[in-house]
Amino acid sequence: MREASFTELRSQATRFFDLVEAGEVIRVTRNGKPIAEIHPVPRDLPSWKRRPARPLVVSGASLSRLILQDRGE
Known about the structure:
Blueprint: E1 2-5, H1 6-11, H2 13-21, E2 26-30, E3 33-38, H3 47-50, E4 57-58, E5 61-62, H4 63-71
Parallel strand pairs: 1-2
Antiparallel strand pairs: 2-3, 4-5
């Protein structure tokens, strides 16, 4: 993790954001104390999209099967 003072970040913002875009985390300090961290935005799918889809089951029966039965199909 790289560190940059707030003043450095202001004067060299393009350089630091290029590093963040490349995957690095930048810790911003003011008067030697950490005040923020700049993280890259994850490019992969959100966690809810990565989970495998499971069929909905109600009282031991597939929900889609119950809907089709209700429709008379």
